[in-house]
Amino acid sequence: MYFNPVETLPRKELETLQTERLKKTISMALQSPYYSRTLGEAGVTPESIRSVADVKRLPFTTKDDLRNEYPYGMLCKPIEEFVRLHASSGTTGNPTAVFYTQHDLDEWASLMARSMYSCGIRKGDVLQNMAGYGLFTGGLGIHYGSERLGCLTVPAGAGNSKRQVKLIRDFNVTVAHIIPSYAMYFSEFLHHEGIDPESLPLRIALIGAEPHTEEIRQRIESMLHLKAYNSYGLSEMNGPGVAFECTEQNGMHVWEDAFLVEIINPETGEHVADGEIGEVVMTNLTRQGMPLLRYRTRDLSRFIPGECACGRTHRRLDRIQGRADDMLIIKGVNIYPMQIEQTLMSMPEVGQNYLIELFREGVMDQIRVKVEIREEFFVEDMRKLQGLQKRIATRLRDEILVTPRVELVQSESIPKTQGKAKRVVDLRDD
């Protein structure tokens, strides 16, 4: 039932293990130019750590720190000991680069295999990786985890839906790794091609890389006739495999033997109570080449209180609610794009895509939501369309407390982007 016995370690023993590993991680981090300086200034040594609660004594690490120390300032070992790096796109300024030793890659693959096992994937499954490879961690992270688990692995990459279908059929693919926005598009592609999803051997989809709502997950499961499991990862911690749903589909287990996780108030930096939403802060516990301490992810989530029915003792993160830096302020009201998605995707008339546009009218900031409408509801009767438009605007107003302009558009008329979906466009400076 479990890939690794550590998954069911009693809480006290798990915290003892975390404390030991935190001490070792600090000892390694002190070998880097960045942490030798910042930990020295904070007066932190391995000996000063007596329990996991002492993590609060460590200074935060931010994405700006990684950019400022680019390329080698965060490394704890000579460059000759590293065998791979991943990096952000870095279209403006320095990218963030993350380096891996062979030990780090082996640990990552094992965590990914554990993650996939927890949602029912086994040796003998065939996994088709429909995510991008390259500097993006998602593709290679899933790939090596799949091979470690013993699955036949098809590195299909992103896009080219006709080829994806052929590979799925030809090699009896049972598991797909796919980002949510492409899963929605892929289901529409199958519909237009007259392909019944039940005719495909797929039974599991691993979805992640983009924050998405429960409504999106349910649509993916309904349209593709499979079970879709949510996951969480970020390049700075490894990539995918930081937290993963089990078959209970009730929160993502954080692998706490490898990551020490905190939830903080993003404004004050103080811990919030269990069950409250805050910013996720993470510390590596097993990475040797480039461990990060108290890394501020800017992702918003919460710990789900209570124990999981699966028997695993590692705490569960709720799905990511958005990012602290994605918050929109319109007419003095704080709005998160995920609120809009949740509302739209609960309405059966709404299609698979939407776009939030911010614009200025006079001196006032305004918000417009372009919504794709399913073909069967996009009728010539203007009264029906206007009624639907008003209903969507009202539902959104009830959720976000601001009445947006709602523009109904035909299915598949909003341009799709390669990779992660772009949901918000700021036109205020145009």
From TrEMBL:
Residue ranges constituting the AMP-dependent ligase C-terminal domain according to the UniProt record: 332-428
Pfam families the UniProt entry points to: AMP-binding (PF00501), AMP-binding_C_2 (PF14535)
Known pathway: Aromatic compound metabolism; phenylacetate degradation
Leader peptide range in chain numbering: none
Keyword set includes Phosphoprotein: no
Stretches assigned to the AMP-dependent synthetase/ligase domain: 88-282
GO annotation terms (biological process): phenylacetate catabolic process
Enzyme class, broadest EC rank: ligase
Catalyzed reactions: 2-phenylacetate + ATP + CoA = phenylacetyl-CoA + AMP + diphosphate
Entry keywords, A to Z: Ligase, Nucleotide-binding
Family: Belongs to the phenylacetyl-CoA ligase family.
PANTHER family: BLR5969 PROTEIN (PTHR43845:SF1)
Name assigned to this protein: Phenylacetate-coenzyme A ligase
Organism: Paucidesulfovibrio gracilis DSM 16080
Organism classification: Bacteria, Pseudomonadati, Thermodesulfobacteriota, Desulfovibrionia, Desulfovibrionales
